[in-house]
Predict the 3D structure of the following.
Amino acid sequence: MKKMIFKTVLPLGILMLAGACSAPRKDLLQAEFEGVGNETVYLTAIPLSRTDSVLYDTIALEDGAFVWDVELASPTDVLLELGRDRRPSGRRAPAASDAYRVNFLLQPGEKVRIKAVYEDDFLSYELSGSRELELQSDLRARSREEYVTSGLLHAKIAQALAGGVENADEAYVDSLYEVFGQVNARKANAALPYVKAHPKQMLSAWFLMKHPDRDTFLNYLPVLDVSVVEGPMAGRLQQIRQYAEHMRLLRENAEKLSPGATAPDFTLLDLEGKPVRLSDFSEKHVVLDFWGTWCPWCVKGIPQMKRYHAKLKDKVVFLGIACRDKEEKVKAMVGKEGMKWVNVMNGDSDNDVASLYGVSGYPTKILLEPGLKVKGRYLGEVPEFYQDLDEIR
């Protein structure tokens, strides 16, 4: 359950083409909506020539319509959502559903006209202004079934998280997200034939950037022409490529730790700054708990971990590895919650144990038998982990 965060929120004027020779293009975006009344439209515009910028704007519909004027400096990912503010708020939000929003690539020199109709719990729309814009809405229309299914899953996820992440059924939410990802991949696959047939088009790169499956991204990236890969979207493509390659590395590292494999040794510093080496515990069972104070599932599982530590501390070494965290926060939570097992801080890029062990989600627990042999690997607070602990005599 991951989300992308942009470092800089830019005011509207930053999107203007500095030093441009052309005059501002009025009525860049004209939109008409039916079946929604005078809703508020939340607009997000991401200039794809930058890797650290995003624009948010709030627009009130008048008689179901609005006009947005700005001069674009680069290809821009434009998202319109009715009645849903997507600006960062520090709160966990369920995955966004494309069934209720308008999303398209707008390129410099284009003007877009949008005609949207909301009915049967689905927002259908037509884009006009260029062949590429028309293609985008045509592809969406052909994948209507997947979009509707995505919307239903989005509603279920929102309902499951309504009482707070810490009170939700983690396994159920994760299962919804898994299906949600599969549905989103199917609708994204509809654009892949265009990518293969149009390697010199920036729209192909945008389609590829939006694909949720990062292996697909890596497999299709070589299809793009060098003029696109090194063009205005180069920074974004490089960011996604690095992330996709990192996720592939995590998966490969995780596969190396199949049951019976020997866990790689490591040394990390505990909360007092003293080194802790895994191999020092090779004669016992060891629990490696990759967690963070920022992870609600991790915090939710602390009481159960405390019970099992109290019961098995003479037979099992519990080793908490705090990841993506600040030491002062970890110290505070360890003290507050009475987490009396060994706690260490994950290392940096040269000693990133979470990466070495292929950890891609939190919490991840790994149970080692004497000799540092892998017994099991568990993503989330799952009963199988505690069942395996119960078998230790």
Notes: The longest helix spans residues 234-256.
